[in-house]
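Quick start: read one record
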Amino acid sequence: MVPRVALIMYTSPSQERGLLAGISQYVRTHNRWSLYVQSHWMDNPEGLASWKGDGIIAYVNNSHLLEAIRQTGLPTVNVAEGLEQPLIPAVLPDNHAIGRLVAQAFLDNGFTNFAFSGINTAIYSNERMEGFEKTIQAQGYKCYRCHGDEEYDWNEPPKGLEDSIRALPKPVGLFACFDARARQVVETCHNQGIAVPEEVAVIGVNDDELICNLAEVPLSSVSLRSEQRGYEAARMLDQLMAGQRVEEVIRIGPQHVVTRRSSDMLAIDDPEVAQAVRYIRLHATEPIGVQHVVDKVLVSRRSLERRFRRILGRTPSDEITRVRVERARQLLDETDLPMTQIASASGLGDAVNLSRVFKRKTGMTPSQCREKRYLSR
């Protein structure tokens, strides 16, 4: 008999669409299920009591839904945050890793002032803040907080946000807990005549393309592995329905920062270093070396390297390698290109050099990086 599985989640937000795509991928490649998408049970879960099914994957973001699910006694996997964990088995984003990723993005762009805007009462927001703050503080910097009033309408910036943003030292890299808050930050800056990204560079989370592009300034945002979360949730439910034990919580790391206008700047006062960094990021995948950069900015190699170390904590050669490795990581994550083509497209030459440099910089081989993708399971 084909198992009947209820998918209790909204279908319009981009994150939920990704979850559904991952679940569908698992079902197509493994056991066949009859899937019942029940968005209305998110707010009115009473119908669960009479539903005859075998398992549930749900976006459990309120106690009313959680209790209705518990009453069914059915194997269930949660894919939402907001409630204390672990309550039921869950597949969730790795929020600390999200915070670390954003911190590193700002550090790589030369920022020395940092801020976080989130929701004090939200677990996921606090975890993202912790990952962000710890990475910033490890480099000797301070992270300012500008949350605003907790009681507000998402269509309006929260009270207190204007004052806290105005008081920030600038330029500042500001991490917002998710895209809707990032959009509020950009709107607040616009209303106060604060330039984005020149004074306040902003990065959100979820990479909801519609929300990101509706902002006054298109939003940079962390792309999450929603499809992988959906895939892993389906795999976990399959195990539960077979009577197997599973981990209480699986955390899925983020993909990368999708850079749009809201964070597209370098916070580097030295004009030659800023010019060199821009040149490297435009041309690192080409066969360039440090001398090409030196020739472009018209300063001595020794002077440029000394100024790079002082401002960015790394050399021009390190920056070239960093950009190449990040490009290789993106290609490994998003494409099925063979290693030889990835090596060439990232500026790392051949597959042998790709493997050597990638492992030295990331601690894993290119193949291990690719294996993290859910489709390779």
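Residues 316-334 form the longest helix (19 residues).
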